[in-house]
Design goal:
The protein is of the alpha/beta class and 285 residues long. It has 10 helices and 9 strands. Helices cover 36% and strands 15% of the residues. The protein is globular, with a radius of gyration of 20 Å. The termini are far apart. The relative contact order is 0.18. The structure holds pyridoxal-5'-phosphate.
Length: 285
């Protein structure tokens, strides 16, 4: 039997106060929840709009389950890409004002997929130091030379961009940062990306559904088009109250992702039909 020092590792985690335990939730996501059998006020959920337990969304889920069943049976690239998934992609494209959208089963997978599809060893990736872990992992997986600029510090980013000799450069940032809720300076990022011929990707997981007209996110709020920010990513597991994620951009970006992302070999959940009812609200909504 191999020795992985599991006991010792747990002791160390415990001594360093890094031992983790999961609490058990006995109620739906809502402000007053039952946690480990005790009533608690919830301040840690990302269900920003209270949609995770909304009656209309629940009922859309039930109806979709009656028509399509529960499991997708196979990945999107085999036969798991159903009509409601396609409709959701089309409605999200219209909602975000971008030519095409591609669904992923999680935001983590979307970030791994898009960054490793765009970059290879020899390319350069510039990330805000406080980006979400999935963007950092995506950078590692891509094999690109990967640098973290100081949080929100455009001077620090510019110095790094100036020094880089890489042929392909990508700047990736959270739109709204998950820990403190502060926001990236989008206009400055767009300017730098143009000046240094770098691509720009915004992970709008925490803005989507909350910020901009009808919750269309920080890019729509600031009037940034696909030309300004070619890659937008957002999740459906936060304000949209369900699960899954998407990348939005040009036709050619999405066709490239479909052709190369191994993450599309993962199964989709059945989040499609319920999200459609949220995304189909009119522009003024
Ligand atoms: C900024 C950001 N990006 C990506 C993700 C990953 O999304 P998912 O939970 O759908 O994998 C999260 C989730 O916490 C996030 O906060």
């Amino acid at each position: 039997m191999m020795n992985f020092d599991l006991e010792e590792r747990l002791e160390q985690r415990s001594e360093q106060r890094l031992f983790r335990q999961r609490v058990i939730l006995d109620s739906p996501q809502k402000p007053e929840a039952m946690v480990d059998g005790r009533p608690c006020l919830m301040f840690c959920s990302n269900d920003y709009l209270g949609l995770a337990n909304h009656p209309e969304i629940r009922s859309a889920f039930q109806q979709a389950a009656n028509v399509y069943g529960i499991g997708s049976g196979a990945s999107a690239l085999i036969n798991g890409h159903s009509r409601p998934h396609r409709q959701l992609e089309e409605e999200l494209a219209e909602f975000t004002g971008r030519a095409r959208v591609l669904l992923f089963s999680t935001g983590y997978m979307a970030n791994l997929g898009v960054i490793s599809a765009l970059l290879s060893p020899g390319d350069a990736l510039f990330q805000d130091r406080l980006n979400h872990a999935s963007l950092l992992d995506a950078g590692r997986l891509s094999g690109a030379r990967f640098q973290r600029y100081l949080h929100l510090d455009m001077g620090n980013l510019e110095r790094r961009l100036k020094k880089s000799k890489a042929r392909r450069k990508l700047i990736a940032t959270d739109g709204v940062f998950s820990m403190d809720g502060d926001r990236t300076p989008l206009a400055e990022l767009v300017k730098l990306s143009r000046q240094y011929q770098a691509g720009l990707m915004v992970d709008d997981a925490h803005a989507f559904g909350c910020i901009g007209k009808g919750g269309r996110g920080s890019l729509k709020e600031g009037g940034f088009t696909t030309d300004d920010v070619p890659v937008m990513m957002a999740t459906l597991g936060k304000a949209f109250g369900t699960a899954g994620a998407f990348v939005a951009g040009s036709e050619t970006l999405i066709e490239n992702l479909i052709s190369v992302c191994p993450q599309l070999y993962l199964y989709h959940g059945d989040a499609a039909s319920d999200c459609r009812s949220v995304a189909s609200q009119p522009e003024g909504g």
